[in-house]
Design a protein that fits this description.
It contains eleven helices and 13 strands. The chain has 286 residues and is an alpha/beta fold. The protein has two domains: 149 residues, Rossmann fold, CATH 3.40.50; 127 residues, Hypothetical Protein Tm841, Chain: A,domain 3. The strands form three sheets. A six-stranded mixed beta sheet has the order 10-9-8-13-11-12, sandwiched between helices. Helix 3 crosses helix 4, helix 5 runs antiparallel to helix 6 and helix 9 packs parallel to helix 10.
């Protein structure tokens, strides 16, 4: 079985190679130039460019044709394909992959992870390990369903202008929050894969500290989690969140993930996020 992914899962080239997955990059346009996210533009290069321009970045998905060409090439050696993608509630990537799958004579299953970044990356890693262990597609999909149900993604950010420009939050609501200096805590909803504002604070630091407090209300002190920090070129903020989590919970940490250009185009530099899942609910990986 072959696995196809998009760069919105924020796995590095080295991780993709190790996992044996085929990655189609999302695209980022800055000014007159278009880049392939994570291919010819690294995360740090992107945030540096973003700091140097007043123009808002634009993003786009791989085309239906690019997906179809990739599926056909992979099907030459293995007709069984699992295509895993970031939330259809936030990107058109899943829909493009679905259309392409109908055009190719192969057994292609397209999965909507209903999340993004490291949340999607967890599902990709689990699927790739299962393929190497010889699991069938049905068993893999059942495991991914368990990971989806167990995992939650939260984030906060110092500046809302990129989310507003990208249409990820309403212009009026975002503008009002910006004028009042409010920093939202946002959760990716597991039902529709969209962003929902679940808390607000008057400073970015307080918003970071609020994430463990929200988790505490649901699970109680001392809960054990599989946990990963995601940040947009803000390792210091990541350390603040890690320290706050460690004071309240027992965390098994996955190495930090740097938010890629295509997703960073909607947050700007500084975003701090967290993916977590209760260890008791997270399936045993092969």
């Amino acid at each position: 079985m072959k696995i196809v992914i998009d760069s919105g899962c924020d796995l590095t080239k080295e991780q993709c190679l190790e996992l044996g997955v085929t990655m189609l990059p999302l695209k980022v346009q800055l000014g007159e130039k278009t880049y392939l996210s994570g291919v010819d533009l690294t995360s740090e290069e992107f945030y540096d460019l973003l700091d140097q321009t007043e123009q808002m970045p634009l993003t786009s998905t791989p085309s239906v044709g690019e997906f179809a060409d990739t599926y056909r090439k992979l099907a030459e050696t293995d007709p069984e394909i699992l295509s895993i993608h970031i939330s259809s509630g936030l990107s058109g990537t899943y829909n493009a992959a679905e259309v392409a799958a109908q055009q190719v004579d192969a057994s292609i299953t397209v999965l909507d992870t209903l999340t993004l970044s490291a949340g999607t990356g967890w599902q990709v890693e689990a699927a790739a390990r299962a393929v190497k262990a010889g699991w069938g597609k049905a068993k893999i999909l059942e495991m991914l369903k368990q990971i989806q149900a167990a995992s939650d993604t939260y984030f906060t950010l110092p500046d809302l202008k990129y989310l507003i420009a990208g249409g990820r939050i309403s212009h009026l609501k975002g503008l009002l929050a910006s004028l009042l200096g409010i920093k939202p805590i946002i959760q990716v909803n597991k039902t529709d894969g969209k962003y929902y504002d679940i808390g607000k604070k008057r400073s970015f630091l307080k918003a970071i500290q609020e994430i463990p407090e929200l988790i505490l209300k649901k699970y109680g002190e001392g809960a054990a989690f599989r946990t990963q920090i995601v940040h947009a070129s803000n390792p210091e903020g990541g350390e603040m969140l890690r320290d706050a989590m460690n004071k309240v919970f027992r965390c098994e940490w996955v190495a930090d993930s740097l938010l890629g250009p295509a997703l960073g185009a909607h947050t700007g530099r500084g975003m701090i996020g967290l993916v977590h899942a209760p260890l008791a609910e997270f399936p045993q990986l092969p």
